[in-house]
Amino acid sequence: MIRSQHSAKLPSRRLSVAPMMDWTDRHCRMFHRQITRHTWMYTEMVTTGALLHGDVARHLNFNEEEHPVALQLGGSEPADLAKSARLGEQWGYDEINLNCGCPSERVQKGAFGACLMAEPQLVADCVKAMRDAVAIDVTVKHRIGIDDVESYDFVRDFVGVIADAGCATFIVHARNAILKGLSPKENREIPPLKAEYAYRLKHDFPQLEIIINGGIKTVAEIDAHLQHVDGVMLGREAYHNPYLMADFDARYYGDSTPVKSRAEVLQAMLPYIADQLARYGKGNAGGGLRLNSITRHMLGLMTGMPGARAFRQTLSDSRKLALGDPALLMEAFARTQPLAA
């Protein structure tokens, strides 16, 4: 179902949750939205081929409650990216983001992701084509270098060329992408973080919005980065410890709405889960939606709390999950209470 463009005033990109393959699907984003109202959510990367030759609804459908939400695209053909960006705008996304940071071999074979950093003029052409096609923001997520290119000048020149094409927002994963020899997981951990490169970009391009990403885990780290750049994008920490975001609306957006407790977050998800199961059918051998497709994103809600292990065990019980009963959420939470007493 194609929707009209979301018209509500959008919050700043001061805080956001990174696009993460196999993780930040619409169920994950809906869960995160129960914890923070203003933090930006990003989709998993969607390739232009999947949109132009596949099931558009399956890739682009999302829940209205997810706003502000950005669609991340993977591709390197300006015309295909323009068509895909237009689809994203028609479906109601608030931003189109181009992936210039993913180092996986699958992405490299498609000649996009981090390897695009070696072709800044092509990226500029892609950005211009998308900006000409849509009225919403077009942004770029990238690394600071590829392989053994360590010079700050490399990323400075890359950003400069893309900025000349009209891009005003850059999300900087502040480490190199090693295109050969490291897995995507290793690429998130082994190349050293160089936050100072993101800081220097903001200094050299004060007119641009610079958002830093990579290895950020605490509110103290967020606060430190925000002294130098415009925004912070959380990755794995937002997924594994989502309740870290509970204070974001008040702390970073001045929203005095009472913070939901963990129990209230779970309760808020119950109608959504019931609706999804009713709409798509309970998962079984014949298809439908498995309860685990939603609850798997919620395993980290009790991180750091007494009973966290019991909570995860209950939500991972295959026999109980097979019943498709959303009440499993509250059963899992109830198991934590004697341990928390």
UniProtKB/TrEMBL annotation:
UniProt keywords, alphabetically: Flavoprotein, FMN, NADP, Nucleotide-binding, Oxidoreductase, RNA-binding, tRNA processing, tRNA-binding
Residues of the DUS-like FMN-binding domain: 17-322
Cofactors named for this entry: FMN
Site-annotated residues for Interacts with tRNA: N99, K185, R188, R309, R312
EC number of this enzyme: 1.3.1.91
Reactions it catalyzes: 5,6-dihydrouridine(20) in tRNA + NADP(+) = uridine(20) in tRNA + NADPH + H(+); 5,6-dihydrouridine(20a) in tRNA + NADP(+) = uridine(20a) in tRNA + NADPH + H(+); 5,6-dihydrouridine(20) in tRNA + NAD(+) = uridine(20) in tRNA + NADH + H(+); 5,6-dihydrouridine(20a) in tRNA + NAD(+) = uridine(20a) in tRNA + NADH + H(+)
HAMAP family (UniProt xref): DusA_subfam
Family, per entry: Belongs to the dus family.
Annotated protein name in UniProt: tRNA-dihydrouridine(20/20a) synthase
Natural source organism: Noviherbaspirillum saxi
Gene name of this polypeptide: dusA
